[in-house]
Amino acid sequence: MATIRAVLRKKKNSENKFPIAIRITKDRKSTFLGTGQYIEEKYWDKTNRCVRKKHPNANYINNFIISKIAEANKKVLEAESSEEYQNVRSIKRKITQNKKVDFFEIADKHLENLKNRNRHHQYDTEVGRLKKLKKFIEKNELGFNEITVSLLKKFEAYLLHNKKRSPRTVVNYLILIRTIYNLAISESLVDRGMYPFGKGKIQIKIPETQKIGLNLKEIQRLENAADLTEPQQKAVHVWLISFYFAGIRVGDVLKLKWSDFNDGRLMYRMNKNSKLVTLKTPEKAEAIFKQYRKKDSLQDLIFDYLKDTDLSDTHRVSIRTQSVNRNLNRLLKRVASKLKIKKKMSMHIARHSFGNISGDKIPIQMLQKLYRHSSVTTTINYQANFIHKEADDALDSVINF
Predict the structure, then answer these.
(1) Considering the chain, what is the average pLDDT of its residues?
(2) Checking phi first, is residue 235 left (phi over 0); if not, alpha (psi -120 to 50) or beta?
(3) Which of 63, 81, 96 is the last residue of a domain?
């Protein structure tokens, strides 16, 4: 006979909370049914298999757990009344087979997770991608059993040919669908047997993209630019500060404060992954900062683009940053035209420009530190876009005869 227990699983989410699940065990093998409830580990009573009373929603969650156990127990009894032997997988299949799980309901959970992690730009982008998927399937509900290899290939072709999306953008759509599918599996709402991704199915391969940065002469043109309007000059200064600090992202540049600098060093926490960064302040950067320091100002921000934005409101900051970034890119495009720089100018290529000029001059481990990459493999793959000397020398050794 199978046993049914409420348990707290050990795989925590991005908020450091753990999922409550219903565990079904038979013949020393277990399977899990997700409840969709997450709590901090300190609130779980291991002995009584319930949420401790000090949790603000303890009564509600415990009643919910009881109802889920009763529901599962009923299904187990029905399954085991069969004359055929039932293992835990077949029992779970019988419990879940009549329960249709809507892909877009799980997508809403994924979006809520992004909001809770203050990933507002990603949230907005993925809301738009899910709308595209709904438009393609022409309905607002989608069962996971309907997400087949055939459907995904048709959706891929639709995005490439009908919507003229780039291959890299199409990959982002597929990654989103896979992420939501994995979330459903992790909460035991969907069986992995239907999984449409992997070998022999839909394999997601990120296409190589061409990363082009400015060269030394082009950056010197920016440093020595004259006859620019005040907004154009300011945009160039923001770009140069990003470049001087190894390509820090525009959102981090806009939030730089005078209080982030101590003893000639910049110390700040990256917005993207919350990593603490400390870098020497180059003399060129200090020269730019002097132009924006006002003795009588109480404004702590170095650049004033976010001065009227509540920095504690991460959503408003995200929206405003996107708007400022678009405006900076427009200004930089005009500057590039004035300075006869033919490459596409944007805030983002400040990072590529640092990579282009560093080339193979800096040890890869040091570049990893400067780029704030978690893995040296990421750094190697990124920097490969800018290291050409060995390939060039090899080519010359063959054809220069």
Answers:
(1) 85
(2) alpha
(3) 96
Q: What percent of the chain has pLDDT over 90?
A: 46
First-to-final CA distance of the chain: 81
Amino acid, single-letter form, for residue 212: I
Distance between CA atoms of residues 47 and 64, nearest Å? 18
At residue 122, the pLDDT reads 92
CA distance 371 to 379: 8
14 or 309, which is more confident:
309
What does the alpha-carbon distance between residue 331 and residue 234 come to, in Å, rounded to a whole number? 9
Give the pLDDT band (50/70/90) at residue 278: confident
Convert the pLDDT of each residue in 319-351 to its tens digit: 999 999 999 999 999 999 999 999 999 998 988
Q: Residue 240 belongs to a domain with what CATH number?
A: 1.10.443.10
Whose structure tokens read 């050990």? 10
Strands 276-280 and 265-269: antiparallel
Same domain membership, residue 299 and residue 234: yes
At 85, the pLDDT band (50, 70, 90 cuts) reads confident
Task: Give the helix/strand (H/E) hosting 36.
Answer: strand 29-39
What's the pLDDT score for residue 266? 87
Residue 156 lies in a domain: yes
Q: If DSSP states are collapsed to H, E and C, what string results for 190-254?
A: CCHHHCCECCCCECCCCCCCCCCCCCHHHHHHHHCCCCCCHHHHHHHHHHHHHHHCCCCCHHHHH
d(CA 197, CA 195) in angstroms, rounded, equals 6
Q: Is the dihedral of CA 32, 33, 36, 37 positive or negative?
A: negative
pLDDT cut 70: percent of the chain above it: 84
What's phi and psi for 93, nearest 5 deg? -60, -40
| Residue 206 falls inside a structural domain | no
> Any alpha helices (H) in 6-116, and if so which ranges?
58-80, 88-96, 103-116
